[in-house]
Structures are given as C-alpha cells and as structure tokens.
Amino acid sequence: MSTQRESGRKTAMERRVPRWAQRLYRFMRRENLHRVLLLLGALSLASAIFLWSLEPDKPLADWLWWSVVTITTVGYGDITPTTVFGRLTGVVLMFFGIGVLSTFTATIASFFVELKLKGDRGMNSLRVKDHFVLCEWNQRAETIYAELRSDPRSAETPVVLLTTSVDSKPVGDDDFFFVHGEVTEDNLERINIGEASTVVILGDDSLEPGPRDAKVVLSVLTVEGIAPDVYSIVELVREENARHCERAHADEIIVADEFGSRLLASAAIDHGISRVISELLSARTGNDLQRIAVPAQLAGKRFLDVTTTLKDTQGSLALAVERGSEVVTNPAKDFRVEATDTLVVIADRSDRPS
Q1: What is the pTM of this model?
Q2: 31-120 adopts what CATH topology?
C-alpha cells in the first residue's frame, strides 16, 4: 500500500516537473554527470579549505572564489596565494580541475546535440498549441504546407508532421515539427493533439486504394476518439468509404478521385474552368476563397444588398452563405442573411486579415 502511495506521489511530482527537466535529470544520471558536479564541488571546497589553513589572512569565502575562478581558467588575479604550498596547490588545481571541467562541459554539449538529433528524427514529445497536424508526408502534404505558409493567417502557425514515410524532418522551418510514428493514441498524445486546431489525414501513397482508405478511416477514428473537438479533414480515394468517416465524425471528407474527375468533366465542358478553380484555391496568387462573419450592419439584409455592399466597401464578391451545416450557393436575391451566418467570398489575398 505504501509503495502505491509513493508511486502516486512520484507520478504527481513528475507531472509538475517540465519534460525537459526530467530528460536532463535522466541524462545526468545516465552519464554520471551528478558525480562530476560533486567532484567539482568537492575539489573547490577542499582546495579552499587547504589554502585558508595555509594563508588565514583571507576569509574562506575568498579562497572558495579563487578555487572556482582557477578551475574555470578565468583567472581574475584579484586573489593569489603567496606561499609555496599555496602556489603548488594552485598548479595541481589548474591541471586537475580543467580536466574535470572539460568532462562536464562536453557532457552538457552532448545533451543538447542529442536533443537536436532526436527532434530532427522525430523522437521528441511536443508541447505546442493551436497547431496544424499533417498525417503523412507526400507531394500533397508539401503543397498543403506551402499554402499554409503563404496565407498570412497561418504563416507562423506551428505545423506538426506525424508519419513514418520519412526518417528525418523534411522542412527547415523552426515552426515545423516532426514526430516519427503511426497515428496511435501514444503518438497523438506526443503531439498534444488535444490542443491542436486542425488535423489533416492524408492517404498513404504506398498502399492500394482499399487498404489506403482503411488506414485513413482507422486514423480518423483514433483522432476523434482522443480529441473530438479538433477539426478533422480526411482524404479518401473511394467515395463509398466516405460513410465510414462520417460515422467516425470527421468534419470534412475529400474524395480525391471524385473531386478530380468532376474538375476534369467541368474543364471538358467549359474550357479553362480548371485554371479559375486552381487560382481561387491557392493562397499564393491572386484572389482566394475566404469565410467571413456577416458584418453587423448587414445582418437581416437581402443577399443582393450584402453582395453590393461588400463589393463597394471591400472589393469582395459573396458566393455562398453557410447556415449551420447547410451551405446555400448563389442564394436568391431576396434571401435574408442572418447575423449568425458565415459568408463565403472571393477576395484579394492582400486584403485578407492576418
């Protein structure tokens, strides 16, 4: 019983201590760094006491200061021994102390190098908040990352990559973090999924369509089971698998083949339409699709009046109205816009709020 209580107290203490401090403590124990520190302290104190016994005209605190300065090779020269044995003590302290101090500094340097290597190889746990999560790394993920960085609203937002597709951090960005692993409960906790803003689950290109969609469905089930409040976007190959993601409560489901086929069909009928869609979907050039709240002065107005006012005052063009889970595209001119609605507009990216 007492063992369980001690284990509980230890766990509670570990929760209060930052992870980096816990790792530093374990590293010091593993590398016997605590013994090096004790040796440095004992060496400084012993030499100070010995010199104080030889030259008691100076207080012990001054000789302790001299020992530390000598070991660190700073050598201020404000305090120096005058007796022969005192100077011999200084010589021994210089040669022996520099070796112990070098061991200490080299071990500390290796600790930070180890942290950096672990971060690049995706072996660390993260404490980021309000971050985007990308599950899988492929050409589509690279495009998503580029678009996020091109948009002023997400240019500095932390992006976390969770995948086994790569072995090291693929992007040289201080706000881009990499964790190597599958979408499991343990790995999702490592990336602090509960405080993420959005998670994008992409298909694994190395798999056939069936297993690929099955892996996506399992991933969204895992994410929604741990963090149901995080906005989840999933990519599927086959439309018939969308219902599984709906049951898993995915917020947005994109069937890549279906979307691409419809775009190809539209381009075949209306030549050049794909260029318009591509330009609107990109945050890097021209005008973009944006979601905005209904301005207070336009609540209750007709959609036609809202469209005219937005064009006159902001230069944007209203396309649709989101009302709860319903989306009304190109509403009738007499359609009344409510204060709780969200407008989907086309606007220049330079006018986009940061």
Answers
A1: 0.61
A2: Helix Hairpins (1.10.287)
